[in-house]
Amino acid sequence: MANDEYDFLFKVVLIGDSGVGKSNLLSRFTRNEFNLDSKSTIGVEFATRSIQVDSKTIKSQIWDTAGQERYRAITSAYYRGAVGALLVYDVSKHQTYENVTRWLKELRDHADSNIVIMLVGNKSDLRHLRAVPTEEAKQFASENNLSFIETSALDASNVELAFQNILTEIFRIVSSKALESGDSSANQLGDRKVVEITKTPDSEKKQGFFYYMYTPTGHADIKTAFLSSSSRSKAILTIDRKL
C-alpha cells in the first residue's frame, strides 16, 4: 500500500516533561528504533505511521512536543486540532509524575474538549528505580477519565499496544458519532461530503466538533471546528496535511 493511501488521518500529540522518553516512544512506534543518546526535542517534531482498524487504514500523525519551559509558547499552539494525546511520565522519577497534573491542565486549556487522553508511565524497564507505583497512577487516570498504560521504549514493551489502543479508541468514538449523526447532519461542500459530529452543549464552554471531509478519492480527513456559545460562529481548523 502506498504511504499516502488511508481512510482516516488522526493527529496525536505526545506531552510531558523533558527526558521522559517521548521522542523514543515516537521513534519506536513509527520506525522501531531506540536512541540511547536521544537529545531533547527542540520545538516540535512529528512522524507518521498507518495501522489497520476494522479493515480501515488509519494514518496517525504523532507530534512530539518539547518539554522544556522555554518552548511552552511554541508547543501550546500544536494542541489545536489534536484528537488524541499521550501524557507521558517517567516511572523512575516521581517529579515527572507530579507534573502530570500541570500538563493535563495545559492540555485541557488548549486542546479540544473531545480529545482522547492516555496516561503513559514510560521506562517500565527500570524496575529497580521505580518511584511511581502502578496503582497510584491507575487511580489518578481513573479519577481524571484517562486510559492508562506503562511502556518501555527501550525494550518496546507495550509501545505498540499504547498507540494501537488510543488510535482504536479515537476511531471507535468517531465511527459511533458518525452513525449517530445520520444523513440529516451531512452537508455538501463542493465535491466533498461533510459529516458534523457534535457534543452535548454546555452553555459555559466552547463546544467541540469533529468533521470528516470525504474527498473524491475516498479519503476521510478529520477536521475540527469550534462553536462559541456567545457568538455561535464556527471556525474550521484543518489538522491534516498530505505528506
Could you walk me through the main structural features you see in this protein, from its secondary elements to its overall organization?
The protein is an alpha/beta fold. It has 2 domains: 8-173, Rossmann fold (3-Layer(aba) Sandwich), CATH 3.40.50; 182-238. It has helices spanning 22-31, 72-76, 94-98, 100-110, 134-143, 159-181; strands at 8-15, 44-53, 56-65, 84-90, 116-122, 147-150, 186-189, 192-198, 207-214, 220-227, 234-238. Strands 1, 2, 3, 4, 5, 6, 7, 8, 9, 10 and 11 form an 11-stranded mixed sheet that branches. Strand 10 (220-227) and strand 11 form a beta hairpin. Residues 183-243 have low confidence and may be disordered. Its main location: membrane. InterPro entries: P-loop_NTPase, Rab_GTPases_membrane_traffic, Small_GTP-bd, Small_GTPase. One of its GO terms (molecular function) is GTPase activity.
What's the short story on this structure?
The chain is an alpha/beta fold and 243 residues long. Helices cover 26% and strands 32% of the residues.
Output the helix-strand order. EHEEHEHHEHEHEEEEE
Report the mean per-residue pLDDT as an integer. 75
Question: CATH-wise, what's the superfamily of the largest domain?
Answer: P-loop containing nucleotide triphosphate hydrolases
Taking the alpha carbons of the first and last residues, their distance comes to: 15 Å
Strand content: 25-35%
- What's the architecture of the largest domain, going by CATH? 3-Layer(aba) Sandwich
